[in-house]
Amino acid sequence: MTEHTVIPAGAYPHYSAIMTPEQLQAMRAHAQTDPDAFWLEQAQRVHWFKNPTQGFVGSFENDVSISWFADGTLNASVCCIDQHLTDKRDQVALISQREAEGRSESLTYRDLHERVCRLANALTYLGVQKGDRVAICLPMVSEAVVSMLACTRIGAVHVVMFGGCSADAVAERLVDSGARAVITGSMAWRGKKIVPYKETLDEALQKAGENSNVKAMLVVRTSDEAVPMLPGRDYDYHDFVDHFEADFIPVPMNAEDPMFMLYTSGSTGKAKAVVHATGGYMVWAAYTMGMVYTHQPKDVLWCTADVAWITGHTSVVYGPLANGGTTMISDSLPTFPAPGRWLDLIDAYKVTMLFTAPTAVRAMMADGDAEVNKRDLSSLRLLGVAGEPINPDAWLWYHDVVGKKRCPVADTWWQTETAGVVLGPVPGVQSLKPGSATMALPGVEVALVNTEGRREEGPASGALCIVRSWPGQCRTLWKDHDRFRQAYFSMVPGLYFTGDGARRDEDGYYWITGRMDDVINIAGHRLGTAEVEDVLGEDHRIVESAAVGVPHAVKGQALVVFAIPCKSAATEVNEKDISRLIASQIGRYAAPDAVYLVPDLPRTRSGKIVRRLLRKIASGDTETLGDLSALSDASLVETLCAFVQKQA
Ligand code: 6R9
């Protein structure tokens, strides 16, 4: 298999594509010549109280300002629920499969409306108002989806947090966002491990102390065990919420009113909160998901992403529901309690569209073809991936073995900041190349910029940038517009820089080559190496550290940490301490695969740590270390290689 493998669009005679290649071409041309008209047409995918007449207003220059559909008003929960109550009242909107409890729950659009309204009333009773932030830290249960929608019904800004975050990280986010209320669960099972949601929240609130603005916490009971509740602050979700009225008049929002924030890692400093605006986000979610995952009657879309990621927002909740589809969530793992678990669920729930991360594909692949061949899987008609690069071998396995060559595979490239798919195929319309995220959807123009800052034409490699604004673009970083400008618009003035490198081939297909900054991607989770180094920098037992990403067969990348222990520290530090420190400050997902305590780090003569070298040493790729003459102490390299070999 080479990267020249091309699977023609016509290879899927049973896939009903939404348009012809000529129509796609015409759509691109229209978006190019009259972007405002194009996007105002796309805006009609969602329901507006007041239809917008303005498209984009703003600029990527100077202070950077972005606004879309600014004179329109809408409410996201109406786009996702009320808009479908006339024709899809009794259609299932949400299937929630509860692995731990061995049961599932299906909510129709009518049920969803009722649940969302009750919670909107309950939150209002607790004092939550338009513009207030509400933190949501829940496992994959229907209340997670209901909570997000209830916030939008009130106009509150939701901040969904990942259950894997440590109490410190949660505390930091609660303080930074100024959240007024929290919705959490008692606990969750992740395979055999317990994720202690309530305990983490209690600890986080304790740590945040006076700096927290949290007045109330709703707790979804996810097990029979008693949970300590703080009277006056904590409420049992169902005991409290279910008494409220099942109707709530949605609050009209201006298109530019913030809808949600999401913390994500960047190349510098602590995690930052990306802010998304209501109108642009909803149009973009409906458009991108409508172009790639076209909901048809009887379709069940299972996107396996946690709701705390952008994929969980757009591909689990807002995209499918805005398009009137059926979306499924599950707290299961792909290969637990036994290999093929997800395959069983595809058969049990007649999933038609499966959307997951390359890491999960590789994990299933490792269990072998026999596991797949034991199942039927004939319900599937479309497969998708996002979050990290997929190697052509895994792509082909997904396509040939899981999809039986009947289902197109959509590799979609996007980011928390882009809110929806930027690069990705319209399935059945475009030819596919295993390992390539195809090209930009109509209305989006991407560019590759070389090291001199110039845009490349034709086949080339470079920094992946986006030329013009798109409706789902994040508007700012919470309370830090300056960092927003610096992070995305300073590298190539006038363009949005994604942080990724890419190559464009002779057919105009894009191949993502990975991050160009110090962000690593572990099983689709973004982690800034600076975040890890900052944590270690605050510990007096460590002089200095460097965190790097190395290739990993299943997770894509793994974290490796080199640290110089302090000789004069009263207490010694060992490798386990370092792992624990990172897990407790950031989260379990950030725990390194290897830690090396070393006498020094390789540096240039000006003192800069040479990470390129550390990456090679950590991955055992010591044959081609390159020119070491610029190092201040070349002999150190041998010492470091010996450390790595010893622990291997
Ligand atoms: C949706 C999501 C964004 C970063 C992004 C890139 C990597 C995402 C990818 C991909 C190669 C794909 N990424 N999709 N790399 N191929 N199809 O993952 O958002 O968590 O913000 O991560 O993930 O490096 O810059 P987010």
TrEMBL record:
Positions of the AMP-dependent synthetase/ligase domain: 84-466
Which NCBIfam families does this one have? Ac_CoA_lig_AcsA, PRK00174.1
Under Enzyme Commission nomenclature, its number is 6.2.1.1
Pfam hit, one: AMP-binding_C
Report which gene this protein is encoded by. Answer: acsA_2
Task: Please give the family membership noted in the entry.
Answer: Belongs to the ATP-dependent AMP-binding enzyme family.
What is a single molecular function from GO for this protein?
AMP binding
Domain Acetyl-coenzyme A synthetase N-terminal: where? 25-80
The protein's organism comes out as: Acetobacter orleanensis
Q: Name one GO biological process term.
A: acetyl-CoA biosynthetic process from acetate
Q: Which InterPro entries match?
A: Ac_CoA_lig (IPR011904), ACAS_N (IPR032387), AMP-bd_C (IPR025110), AMP-bd_C_sf (IPR045851), AMP-binding_CS (IPR020845), AMP-dep_synth/lig_dom (IPR000873), ANL_N_sf (IPR042099)
Q: Give the UniProt keywords, A-Z.
A: Acetylation, ATP-binding, Ligase, Nucleotide-binding
The broad enzyme category this protein falls into is: ligase
- Keyword Nucleotide-binding (UniProt): yes
Please report the name of this protein according to its UniProt entry. Acetate--CoA ligase
Q: Which domain of life is it from?
A: Bacteria
Q: In what residue span(s) does the AMP-binding enzyme C-terminal domain sit?
A: 531-608
